[in-house]
Design brief:
It contains 8 helices and 17 strands. By secondary structure, the protein is an alpha+beta fold. The strands form 5 sheets. Strands 9-10-8-13-14 form a 5-stranded antiparallel β-sheet, with no helix packed on it. Helix 1 crosses helix 2, helix 1 runs antiparallel to helix 6 (117-139) and helix 2 (36-45) crosses helix 4.
Amino acid sequence: MPNGKLKAIHKASGGPWGGIYVDQAYQAMLNAVFGEKAVNELKNTEMGDYIDILRDFETKKREFSLNAEDKVTFRISAALREAFEKHEKRTLKEKIESLSYGSALELRGSEKLRLENQLIKSWFDVPLDQMTQHVKDILKEPNMENVANILLVGGFGESSYVQEKLASELMNKRLIVPKEAGLVVLKGAVRFGHNPGLVSSRILQYTYGFKGRVRYDSKQHSESDLVIVHGEKRVRNAFIVLARAGDEVYFGDEKTVGRKAGSDGQEYTDYTIMRTMKQHPVLATEPGCCKIGRLRVHHPEGKTQNDNGMDVTFMFGDTELKVKVTVDKTGATFNQTIDCLQ
């Protein structure tokens, strides 16, 4: 923005398409080759060796590129091989030959595994293909047509193969990879912690509201959810929306709706705070709707529903969602803070 702040133009989205997928594929291979018993024994008795194996893999993962050699060597520990021999009745070479890897995996010496680059590429390509397609789908949306630059950050972004593959798939965009791509995420979090106003607006990923009762509408409500309150047809467990997924909210933005107590003579009202990825939920019991908090409001002063009018306010823009209820008669306020990073 002209004032140097950031403004979101699309809600956060995506899936588990980072480096952890590649890590899990490598760990699955270790389990297949050495057996889960041997790998778990290494973790329990020689954690230092296990960490060294993962650290060696992490280095090779980041160095791996489209032009990688035919085979890549990964170091294993003598302790892992000893654990294998303890639990298996065959040699490590015989075990490897019995697996489905074929020539893509071979034992070199006593403490090295050689993997064909095509096998390693397959570990990268599964998350990368999904990530690339997701980015392409986003860029097709009307409000994204002017996007020219893509920032690649995080530990996965430090991989040469990831950078090269994305650059080849998104040729009409400028791909920017900052130095220490994994560290910039932490730096950004620290800067935001000191100055939350750096992000002037966000696009909501979820629809937020609370569970309550609304007037019955036969066009959208089922009779099974119908209740009679003071002679009026009402719907229980309705999703009362304060802000919808896709809405733009500014830092400190507030959304307020007026409510009444549940019934005459009731001294407290509970508000069950909800969220869902649906834009237009009807009931808080629909699939995908989940409870994220509860706020109890005490109002013993009023004797009737009309005495106990309240304003329910949701405050957006931060990494936390803040909910405030103000009792009209007394001005008493009740607050609930919900961590949106969970």
